[in-house]
Structures are given as C-alpha cells and as structure tokens.
Specification:
Order of helices and strands: HEEEEHEEEEEHEHEHHHHHHHEHEHEEE
Number of domains: 2
Number of strands: 16
Pfam families: Peptidase_S10
Low-confidence stretches: 1-25, 291-319
GO molecular function: acyltransferase activity, transferring groups other than amino-acyl groups; serine-type carboxypeptidase activity
Structural class: alpha/beta
Largest sheet: 12 strands, mixed
Number of helices: 13
InterPro entries: AB_hydrolase_fold, Peptidase_S10
CATH architecture of the largest domain: 3-Layer(aba) Sandwich
CATH class of the largest domain: Alpha Beta
Distance between the termini: 68 Å
Mean pLDDT: 86
Family: Belongs to the peptidase S10 family.
Protein name: Serine carboxypeptidase-like 18
CATH topology of the largest domain: Rossmann fold
Amino acid sequence: MPFIYMKSIVICFSLQLLFSLFVHGLPGSIVETLPGFEGVLPFKLETGYVRVNASELFYLFVESQGKPLEDPLLVYLVGGPGCSALTGFFFQVGPLIFNTTDYLGGLPELLYNPYSWTKTASIIFIDYPVSTGYSYATRSEGYHMTDTASAKLVHQFLRKWLIDHPKFTKIPFFVASDTYAGIITPIVAKEIFDGNEAGLQPHINLKGFVSGSPHTDTALEHNSRVPLAYRLALISRSLYESAKNSCKGNYVDVDPSNAPCLEDLEKINQCITQINKENILDPKCVRLSPNSNNEEQSRRFLKANSQRFPVLSSKIQDYWCQNFEYVLVDVWANDERVRDALHVRRGTVTTWYTCNSFLQEVLYTYNVFTAVDYYQNLTRKGLQILIYSGDHDMVVPYISTEKWINSLNITVDTDWRPWFVQGQVAGYFNSSLVYIFCFKMKTGVRTSSF
C-alpha cells in the first residue's frame, strides 16, 4: 500500500507539471552560439516566449557580464511601435554588432560590442506588441494594440518572466527605452508601481527608468522642430522670424486660411525635407530606413542580387550609410539557421521585419499623445529618472524634452554643465532633487549606441 500511495503522488505531480507547462509555456532556452559569430558567445544569452493572454511574446535575455545577482536588471523597450528587439540588441545597448566594414554579401558577420550595457546590467529585450519581430498571437484580437494596452502587456510579461527567473526579483529593476517607446515607458513604470502596491506577485524591485530621445508629447515635439531647425542653421533667421510671427508659434494643424503661415512652412519644408532627421549630420538613406514605405522595394532589391545575398561587387564603405545595418539584420534574422539558433517557433512568423509598417499604420491605435502627467506623478514616487537626448535629432528635438521637463517645476540640484569622455566634451547635463537627470549628447536620435 505505501508503494501504491507514492506512485499516486508521482503521477499527480507529473500531471501538475504538464499542466503548468501548458499554461505558462516552456522556460527560455540557452543560446551558446549564433550564426555569424565565431566561437562560443562570451556572455549568457537566453531566448524564449512568454504568453500574455493571446500574445506569445518573444524575448532575448542577456545576463550581466559583471555581477548578475547584484547588477541591475533592465527591460529595454525599442521604439516604433513595432520595431524588433533585435534593433536594441544590435544597434543600441546589446553585446553584439554587425561587421559593416568588411561585408561582401552572404550571412553577415557578428562582432562583440565592448561598450554594451550588459557589461554592468542584465537586459531583457522584448518583441512587443504582437506582430513585432518574432512575436505572434494565437487569436486575432491579440494583433490589435494601443499605447496603454502595450504598457499593460509589458507589465504582465515582466511579472510572468520573473516567475521563471526568481533569482532576479530582489535586485534593482529599471525600465529602459528609446524614441517612440518613451511614451510607453512611464506608463509601464506606473503599471509596475501600482501592481506592487496592489500586492501583485512576484514583486518587481522598481528603482526607476531610463529613456533616450523619448517621444513624450506629440504636439510639443512637432512645434519644436522649427525652432530647432533655426538653431541648427538649417533655415535663415528671416524665415524663422517670419514663421514665428505668421504662425504665432503653432506649426501643427495650421488654420487653412492662414496663408502666410502655410507659405513659410512650405519654405521651411523645402529646406529640411532632404535631411536625415534622425541625425542631420548623417546622409539620408531612404531605401535603407527601417520606417521607409519602400521596405518591400528594398527587400526585392536585395533578393535580386542573389540566391540569398551573394557577394557584392564592392565593400560597404564604398557606399556607406549608417542604417545599412538594417539591411544586414534583415538578412540575418530571416535566415533559417539563425531562427533555429534563437529557438524561434517554426511556422509562426513567415517574414521578420525590422519595423512592421502594417502594425504601425493599420493594427495599432495611438491613444496617448502626452506622457507628461505620468512623469509628474512618478516624480513623487522617489524613482530615479534619466532622460538623454541628441542635439542633432529632429525627430524628438531636445528643445521639446527640456520644455516638458521644465514644466514639472522640479528644483534643480546640479545646473547645466559639460560631461566628458576621454577628456573631450561629449554633452551637457543637469539633475534635480527628485532624481531626474537630463543629458544632452552630441549625436542624433540613436543616442543609446553612443
């Protein structure tokens, strides 16, 4: 009889385990090697999926190369919406980069990034919302998303991820992001804070958030582009003064009867339309842009050169463009060997896109146009907040970022001063008594990679 009783317990436990795996999904898988990288990866990489309602969210997790049980844990939210976590992994703060210097075709070569944030932090990169990267939905309603729903999705993901990774529940946690995700970030922070207060488990040890060139207030950002164009000497003083007077400082949704304003804005547009607005010092490469309407044309161009991208006629430096990296990641992420190495579920995503324009234009509803109130609320919670911007970025002008930070009416502790890298001025910063740090960097929109 004792033997039969023990056998019943084992069977019962096995059924419970199977049920748990069915409901929550299998834990992540360790990735030791990646196609394009020579040898074993010099860091711990895990990939997997977390199920949230009808969403199967793909993630990459890189454990800190320092002290993973002491170093902070970050979730890094890429902008878009609908831009893959791989862009953050390769182009922003992750441990690998593409070798663009010697690329001659075929599967791109991967190199170790010695400046990765994973030197001192563990980072989760998420493909969110559904239709982004390798993430997919099991029901049709999972494909429709809003700003607020995206924030809730990320929050639920994090709670579930920590259930499978309990050793990270006690260490400091930060939300990090760039560009469009800037409007999602404070909402995610509020969701986490409110969830902790409501007693949701596991507890997330939220300490603050970090955002680079953060989209925060749509109208303010659009209205700041004309003043920034003048500051950057892209338009003349006379044209700027004329537009300021005729438009009364409002350069968005202009009254159709205000002909002088419309005329000035048309002149300004002629001056800046051929400029790379992400960084005015970089060449404009529309065909290679992840947000270009010609992404399919770009893909066809590449396929026309190959049986899967053979040797090119010359090295990439002969026609260099910074966002040529987007072509390389497109080649890499759509390779079946790469998908197998990353443990991507077969048959779930036919084609991987850097940024999913169909999601941006059809599936996604933009329902938050300013996040300033969220910041105002969070400054009272004792969280640490770091905002950094590029001074050559016209997508999210630093002027608008300074304005909404000033609108919070917080007391400045450290006034505007330069900060240095290897003895050279790299930008300027100030800080406040409520733990808001504002950095301005000598770069464009991709501030995280500098």
